[in-house]
Every structure is written in structure tokens, then in C-alpha cells.
Automatic annotation (TrEMBL):
Binds 1 Mg(2+) ion per subunit. Gene3D superfamilies: Phosphoenolpyruvate-binding domains. Belongs to the PanB family. Pathway: Cofactor biosynthesis; (R)-pantothenate biosynthesis; (R)-pantoate from 3-methyl-2-oxobutanoate: step 1/2. The keyword Cytoplasm applies. This is 3-methyl-2-oxobutanoate hydroxymethyltransferase. The gene is panB. It catalyses: (6R)-5,10-methylene-5,6,7,8-tetrahydrofolate + 3-methyl-2-oxobutanoate + H2O = 2-dehydropantoate + (6S)-5,6,7,8-tetrahydrofolate. It is found in: Cytoplasm. It comes from Thermus composti.
Amino acid sequence: MRKTVKDFRNAKGQRLVYLTAYDYPTARLAEAAGVDAILVGDSLGMVVLGYPSTVPVILEEILHHTKAARRGAPNTFLVADLPYLSYATLDRALSSAERLLKEGGADAVKLEGGEEVAEIVAGLTRAGVPVLGHVGLTPQTASQLGGYKLQGKRPEEAERILKGALALEAAGAYGVVLEMVPTALAKEITERLSIHTVGIGAGPHTDAQVLVFHDVVGLYGEFKPRFVKRYLEGGRLIQEALTRYAEEVRQGVFPGEEHSF
Ligand code: KIV
């Protein structure tokens, strides 16, 4: 049964599982694994489309992949990312969210930022759009944060992240992603908020966890951030399979009798 926003609002303290998925087969697998929510993250720009960051991702790309993920996981709560600048004004945010919810079949949208986006979040939630916030390391503006690195080590940074999370809650967000922040800060934010927190690189005390599918199954390069646990060396296994396929074709081993009519 597909969870509802209310289920997530009532799930404070439960250990929920989010996973990214960007296409039909992956979303099917995620649904079969019983995840609580699928995120069509703009990380798809890097892990699927080969961009150097999430900045180039456009709404049409998220929409295209949201539709595919929805077809693969009709019974799973689906969150679609609002790409960079697609929520720069409330009008843009509303029209971007409208497309992801109506055409894409998403249940909610996610956007990055704290106090500076609280007004936009309030406008979206007033209009009835469920919003998941995202503070800490916000990849769309990583350059302004000094790159892809831990956020909230310094007390003033930690204060800004905490205030951002509280502002998102006050604006009506149903949950908040905490990305790459110290465990103690994630714990404090989780305790201070009545909505659920979703951690990635934020330690064990957040209500939920999220990982990028390609990281979990080892499909995205050699680099493995410390917060990722690889449950499969999928890239290596697929590479070996493809090499064997190529060898067997060249050697005349494939197709065999059993594959022929
Ligand atoms: O784009 C994404 O996949 C994300 C998650 C890593 C939280 O924002």
C-alpha cells in the first residue's frame, strides 16, 4: 500500500527507508524491496546522465524519470526533486511542482535550502503541495558551501542549519533531509523537529535514511564517500558479464543451440 503524507507525518521516530530510483526497472526493484519512499533525486544528473554536478539538470529530465519511476513503483510514495532554479520564485515553484505531481505522478517534491526558501515552501504547502526540505550539504549550491564537504562543523554553521530546518518545519514541510552534517547536529535537529528527518551522511540518529541507488549497488565510479555502504559490487559484476558476452560472440560460443530456432 502506498504511504501517504499523513503516514510520514505520523512516523516521527520510526526508521524509514528512502532510496533514489530514476527508471522503471530500478523503481520496481526498490518497491519489491519494500522501501518506504523513492526519491527521483537530481543526483540523476550525475549518476545517470553523466553531468559533472546536479546544476545542469532541468525540469523535463526530472519529469521524464519521475514518470518512469512511477510506472515501476505504483505503490510506493514518490518524491521528485525540484531542480536548480526551478523554484527560484513561488510562481516557478508552483508550476514546476504542478508538472511533477500531475504529469509525473509524484506524491511530493523536494527542494534545497533553509531559511532562504522558507517562503517558497510556505507558498507550496499553502497550495497543497507536500514538500520535503533539504539542508546541510545542498549539492545545487555546493560551490557556495566550499564543495562537497561536511557542513555544520563550526557553531555558526550548525546554528544556520538548525534554524533552516526549523524554518522548513514552520513553513509546512513534511520532512527534512540532512545531508553531510555531524552526527551530534543531526541528532539535535531530529530531537528538535516534530517532522521526520532523513539522513545521508548524517549518522544513525535521523528518523529515516536515504542513499543513492547507484552508490548502494556499486554502479557509480570507484569513489565511495565515507557515508555510503555498498551492498553489491554491481559495476564489477556487470563489467565481467559484458566482457564474457563479447568474448563468447567473438569465439562463436553465443548464441548456442539452446538460443536458436
Ligand atoms: O538528489 C538526490 O539524490 C538527493 C539525495 C542524495 C538526498 O538529494
